Amino acid sequence: MRTVAVALVAGTVLAGCGSAPAGGDGVLTIYSGRSEELVGPLIERLEAAVGGPVEVRYGSTGEMAAQLLEEGADSPADLFFAQDAGALGAVSGAGLLAELPAETLAPALERYRATDSTWVATSARARVVAFNTERVTEAELPASLEDLLTPRWTGRIGFAPSNASWLSFVTGLRLIRGEDGAREWLTAFAAQDPQAFENNVATVDAVAAGTVDIGLVNHYYLYEKLREAGSADALPVRNHYVPGDPLGLVNVAGVGVTAAADDADRAREAVAFLLSTDAQQYLVDSTAEYPVVDGVTPAEPPIPLEPLDSLSPPDVELADLSSLAETEAMLQEVGLL
User: Fold this and answer.
1) What per-residue confidence (pLDDT) applies to 248?
2) Do 206 and 326 sit in the same domain of this protein?
């Protein structure tokens, strides 16, 4: 996601599971920032679960959030399915999401529910340091942000400067350390000559190839690579988790019912479905993201997945990750974007 204030892209894709017009005639309309490739099969199951036709407008999370903010109370959307907590926070902060009942929220771990009950996480992802096991020993791995600023890592760090997960990480850094503290660290990080890559996939590939020794990415990219290769030993790369530090930020995808929903009951049923064991298992197995309900584990993880409750992420109000415009301005100021 870029910023939720991004201009709408003309011709946002409308992929219908039903034939009725969006926003009426019994159709449940979902604005989805999660891609059709990823969640299309899940939407088919959701349609069966709520017992009626469903239409989905797919786009980036930023585009969908911007459309909701523009449409306001006149939006045809019943549900906002977002890739990022910051977008949910922005839409909720504008008064466009309805409070969810306690029984709907109950299956989700408490940490991953909005404090005002207007949205709930559907899956979680952790920031990690991916490292090349042939070039970096475990004793050398960074234990904090400050460790990345030592001479050892000059020119050896990969990152994806325009990627949504990096922007969310920096936004979290601003929330944790304040504007001056974040700017100070980013300035020092830029002086380390980090190597920029197009996305997290390319960053993990660069770590595997030894182009860089470590990469700042989300945890699941390594799992995707190993699953595609069919072997845990296919790449000399592993994830390093950094507890209690901005490097270990945990962000979420999530969902909320719009305040303008034509059929709020069915919309809440859709939320309940996304927190069901069936939907959570699909998300875990399809994305290697973390479930947000107890008792769901990946069917066959290529390498052990650290339990979500063991990660000790920094204490950040996830809805406050919405200030991405300020983050982008700071990154441009220090030369990292």
Assistant:
1) 95
2) yes
Find, among 328, 314, 337, the residue nearest to 175 by Cα.
314
The tokens for 198 are 């197009």
Q: Same structural domain for residues 230 and 208? A: yes
Total domains in the chain come to 2
* Closest-CA residue to 35 (of 19, 13, 17): 13
Structure token digits, residue 45 = 């199951």
**Same domain for 116 and 259:** yes
The per-residue pLDDT for 231 is 85
Q: What is the span of the domain harbouring residue 134? A: 125-249+322-334
pLDDT at 286: 86
C-alpha closest to that of 60 among 35, 96, 26, 94: 35
- Whether 32 and 112 share a structural domain: yes
What is d(CA 265, CA 310) in angstroms, rounded to the nearest whole number?
Answer: 35
Same domain (yes/no): 35, 111: yes
Under DSSP, the state recorded for 99 is: P
3 state DSSP class of 122? strand
Helix (H) or strand (E) holding 214, with range, is strand 214-218
Tokens representing 83 are: 């890739």
Length of the chain: 337
pLDDT value, residue 309: 82
* 147, 271: one domain: no
Q: Which amino acid is at 126?
A: A
Three-class secondary structure of residue 321 per DSSP: helix
Would residue 7 count as lying in a domain? no
Q: What is the number of other CB atoms lying within 10 angstroms of the CB of residue 144?
A: 14
CATH number at residue 273: 3.40.190.10
Task: Provide the pLDDT for residue 295.
Answer: 87
Residues 157 and 47: their CA atoms lie apart, in Å, by 44
Residues in contact with 265: Cβ distance below 8 Å, sequence separation at least 6, in sequence order: none
Q: Could you say which residues of the chain have pLDDT below 50?
A: 1-23
Residue type, 122: T
Residues 96 and 204 in one domain: no
**φ/ψ of residue 165, rounded to 5:** -70, -35
Contacts of 273 (CB under 8 A, 6+ apart): 45, 46, 49, 50, 279
